Amino acid sequence: MTLDLATPADMAEHGRLHVQAWQETYPGVVPQLVLDRLDPAERAVLWHGVLARGGRIRLARLGDVLVGFGASGVQREPELMPYPGEFYSLYLLRRAQGHGFGRALMATMAADLLDQGFGSAHLWMLNGNHPAAGFYAALGGRIVHTRGFTEGDWHGTDTAYAWVDITRLLPAPPGLLQLPLPGMPL
């Protein structure tokens, strides 16, 4: 697997993957009509905007096949100011899940955020995505905020997970074990 930084030339392919990942991840969580209307070209424009604002997008490939992505940058939500970095998204196609790619993407995005000067970060997760909730909790994320939203006729809820110290998402140096110590913040 490779985790390459995306460029504007990658956005059409990225837009297609984003739509496919949503259609695999959210049946029963997001109304089917919303999933059916997702447009790869619109998603590509959205991600072009993320790159233009200085966000970083990592594309996960198995050989030449794009199987996932993660995006990160400066946080966009005033209510989450204590966490200046944000993991904008993390998606893997179903066939790439459960093989450590998600952890590798989180570690790489954490390194990207640290490189930009952000030591803590959060992400928003769509409620009902139970596998993702378990994944973020297993990585030490703690719930810090919940909000409702409306998109057309769809009403949903997001939950924010946060990490006070994103260095905990980096891989442990060989021979060392990373364990949270009692009483230490996540």
Description of the structure:
This protein has 186 residues and is of the alpha+beta class. The protein is built from 5 helices and 7 strands, in the order βαααβββαβαββ. A 7-stranded mixed β-sheet has the order 1-2-3-4-5-7-6, sandwiched between helices. The radius of gyration is 16 Å and the shape is globular.
In short:
With 186 residues, this protein is α+β, with helices and mostly antiparallel strands. The chain is 31% helix and 30% strand. The protein is built from five helices and seven strands; from the N terminus they run E-H-H-H-E-E-E-H-E-H-E-E.
Shape: globular
Radius of gyration: 16 Å
Q: What fraction strand?
A: 25-35%
Terminal Cα span: 28 Å
Helical stretch tally: 5
* Annotation, overall tally of beta strands: 7
Biggest pleated sheet: 7 strands, mixed
Helix content: 25-40%
Mean pLDDT equals: 92
- What oligomeric state best describes the polypeptide chains here? single chain
Please trace the helix and strand order, writing H or E for each element: EHHHEEEHEHEE
Structural class: alpha+beta
Provide key terms for this protein.
186 residues, alpha+beta, 5 helices, disordered C terminus
Any chance you could write out the topology, listing elements then pairs?
Elements: E1 2-5, H1 11-25, H2 32-37, H3 40-52, E2 56-62, E3 65-74, E4 85-92, H4 101-115, E5 121-126, H5 130-138, E6 142-151, E7 154-163
